[in-house]
Amino acid sequence: MRFDVFTLFPTLIQPYLEESILKRAIQRGLIEVHIHNIRDYTTDKHRTADDTPFGGGGGMVMKPEPIFRAVETVLGIPPSCPLILLSPQGRTYNQDIARELATLPQIALLCGHYEGIDERVREHLVTDEISIGDYVLTGGELPALVIIDSVSRLIPGVLGDPDGAIDDSFASGLLEYPQYTRPAEFRGWRVPEILLSGNHAAIARWRREQALLRTWQRRPDLLQKASLSDADRQFLERLEQQAGSSSLTSDQPDSTYPPPGKEIQNP
Ligand code: 9D3
């Protein structure tokens, strides 16, 4: 799969590709990432890529000509693949979108910056617009890397382990169960005994229940889309019953996440 990234800050993108697991994927020819500096496609002597907004107001707007020139030079007219604008106004990225993009042979990513981008780019060049979540960043470069990373790891062979991508939490639709490694006791904190039992069926059941418990506590919204067995549903039913009757059986309030005392604290 090929990615083309159009940005005013190409040096922000390069190091992540060279240091992460993506480096190996590039070396093996499983993915190609081509980074294009939009400023290289300006034609004036100051290499002007942005300008003040018509109508006034603060900040700068990315000019259309260098963006059209860059994209049309690299991808042709009309562009040979989808061009995704990274912007706070896009549809919110998720694993379903990652899977959809991973089916394509090529995508191009356009990183916005400053206050925004001339609307004619959006209207006449961009084919899709994606945000990575409801928080404010300084530009689309990190979102472009998020997309490259999350799409690449779905391509067969990019992860060393072929079922790594299948077994992970968002694939099953549940959060992950707790994991432990040696030592079996650290500072007096013991690993759950079941994991040392050698009873693989019991371990599999415990892990599934822990994943269900965690998801129910922290991300109950995920349970709607998760694929659940009858046994899973029975386990969740028991959790609901325990929660529903907890004020009658224990005097303790219902558990919350994060638990009391684990909230993020100001210094
Ligand atoms: C100061 C400008 N803001 C006015 C309300 C809008 C704005 C424009 C551009 C805010 C942030 C940015 C830069 N962010 C992105 O380009 C971006 C982004 C993000 O900020 N959050 C989540 N996903 C994305 S994708 C691209």
TrEMBL record:
> GO biological process annotations for this chain's record?
methylation
- Cited InterPro entries: Alpha/beta_knot_MTases, tRNA_m1G_MeTrfase_C_sf, tRNA_m1G_MeTrfase_TrmD, tRNA_m1G_MTases_N, tRNA_MeTrfase_TRMD/TRM10
Q: What class of enzyme is it?
A: transferase
Q: Where in the cell is it found?
A: Cytoplasm
- Could you confirm whether the keyword Nucleus appears in this record? no
Q: Which UniProt keywords apply?
A: Cytoplasm, Methyltransferase, S-adenosyl-L-methionine, Transferase, tRNA processing
Q: What is its main location?
A: cytoplasm
Which is an annotated GO molecular function term of this record?
A: tRNA (guanine(37)-N1)-methyltransferase activity
What ranges does the record list as Polar residues composition bias?
A: 242-255
Its recorded reaction(s) are: guanosine(37) in tRNA + S-adenosyl-L-methionine = N(1)-methylguanosine(37) in tRNA + S-adenosyl-L-homocysteine + H(+)
Q: Where is the tRNA methyltransferase TRMD/TRM10-type domain?
A: 1-225
- One Pfam family assigned to this protein is tRNA_m1G_MT
Q: Where is this region: Disordered?
A: 239-267
The job of this chain, per UniProt, is described as: Specifically methylates guanosine-37 in various tRNAs.
Q: How does it assemble?
A: Homodimer.
Q: What is this protein called?
A: tRNA (guanine-N(1)-)-methyltransferase
Give the source species. Thermanaerothrix solaris
